[in-house]
Specification:
Layout lengths: L3 H11 L12 E4 L8 E5 L4 H10 L3 E4 L16 H12 L2 E4 L2 H4 L5 H8 L3 E8 L4 E9 L3 H10 L13 E10 L14 E14 L3 H11 L7 E5 L8 E13 H12 L5 E3 L5 E11 L4 H6 L4 E5 L19 E4 L8 H13 L4 E4 L13
Parallel strand pairs: 2-3, 2-15, 3-4, 12-13, 13-14
Antiparallel strand pairs: 1-4, 5-10, 6-8, 6-9, 7-8, 10-12, 11-14
Helix pairs in contact: 6-7
């Protein structure tokens, strides 16, 4: 059976920890990495009720979207909500891991799942992240260029959208003079040698750069490999926050609000919009998404669905004459992210078919609604 470390490694391959936000804390937070796991419970949040479920079902591990530990604990005693949960996990020998903003930023992640709940089509990333890509350029002799190119691709280089093994090559001449201390693959010590070489360029996600460089060097015949790494300024097409797509047919505002409430299972919606608005293009961001309000407006969306919208921000969709440029809809933090439980369960079950994976039966949101 897989260990807790195996499960975390699978999550990391799916949504690499390196793409998390700086404030975040993800991965294994409590427990023995070598603990063998036969049952996993997934949830949006960790609560006492979720731990109760794990104990009752014999689950050795819990995986949630929201981390338990954002800040270091100075002591581990059952005093306070977070320390008490960590203490009990340790007592019950239950491993705990979280996959948070790295899944938020993953193509096909949280916001894409939310877009699916609303029936959006042609979904793309709302706010692509910059600084996620590097360009690796290596110079290889013609005799070994294909092998070097293949090794880099197998290590994860050259992925652009739905295409893999992407690279650019140009032929040229490499010149060098091996010193007396060198052991050249071609040429003689002390003499300038000219070798037909190929310049190979590939895009690399920053967290795979180390593995790609190692694979490249292993496949390269030279003892001193000439290569360059460049920062890429353009945003990644597949890494970023939020999602934007189009409804199958335009909906009147009331009909769209009903769809949002039904899809997210929200008991109440808070919104700002023109009553006569017709909704076709929709931007979404699971959880607290107002950081991407500008991106939603710039995308040409007729509506932006997210959570945790504060009072004054409901004025932001209005133009200078007080007319709404875009419907702003707060469906709730939990309501726009509970679908993450489904994502987690499907991924873990797919990666480990012999593992028993279940979603929590607990609605973990601490927020309650009173409707008089």
């Amino acid at each position: 059976m897989p260990t807790a470390a195996d499960i975390v490694a699978s999550l990391n391959r799916w949504a690499p920890e390196a793409q998390k936000a700086d404030f975040d804390n993800v991965g294994l937070q409590v427990g023995d990495p070598s603990r063998e796991v036969t049952r996993v419970i997934v949830a949006l949040d960790l609560t006492p009720e979720v731990i109760d479920e794990a104990v009752a079902s014999g689950a050795e591990m819990i995986v949630t979207h929201h981390p338990l530990l954002f800040k270091p604990l100075t002591k581990l005693v059952p005093d306070g909500f977070v320390p008490a949960l960590a203490f009990r996990l340790a007592q019950e020998n239950i491993a705990f891991a979280a996959i948070h903003t790295n899944l938020d930023a993953q193509f096909g992640g949280v916001s894409f799942a939310l877009a699916g709940l609303l029936g959006l089509q042609g979904v793309t990333t709302l706010a692509p992240e910059a600084g996620m890509l590097k360009k690796l350029v290596v110079f290889a002799p013609q005799t070994h260029a294909a092998g070097v190119r293949k090794a880099m691709a197998e290590a994860g280089a050259g992925q652009i959208g739905d295409y893999k093994d992407c690279s650019f090559s140009a032929s040229g001449e490499g010149r060098f003079r091996a010193t007396a201390a060198a052991t050249p693959h071609v040429g003689a010590r002390g003499e300038v040698h000219v070798e037909p070489e190929v310049r190979i360029e590939v895009l690399v996600e920053r967290w795979t750069l180390g593995a790609v460089v190692r694979a490249m060097k292993e496949a390269h015949p030279y003892e001193e490999v000439a290569y360059d790494v460049y920062a890429i300024e353009q945003s990644s097409r597949t890494i970023g926050y939020g999602a934007v797509g189009t409804l199958p047919e335009p909906l009147a505002l009331d009909a769209f609000l009903a769809r949002v409430a039904s899809g997210t299972e929200a008991e109440v919606l808070r919104y700002s919009a023109a009553p006569e608005a017709m909704i076709s293009r929709v931007a979404v961001c699971g959880g607290s998404g107002m950081s991407f309000f500008g991106a939603a407006l710039a995308s040409g969306a007729d509506a932006f669905v997210t959570g945790d919208v504060t009072y004054h921000r409901f004025f932001e969709p209005l133009d200078a004459r007080g007319r709404s440029r875009m419907a702003l809809i707060d469906a709730g933090h939990y309501e726009t992210e509970w679908v993450t439980e489904r994502l987690l369960a499907e991924h873990i079950a797919g990666a480990f078919p012999d593992l028993h994976v279940s979603r929590t039966r607990t609605r973990t949101s601490p927020v309650q609604t009173f409707v008089p």
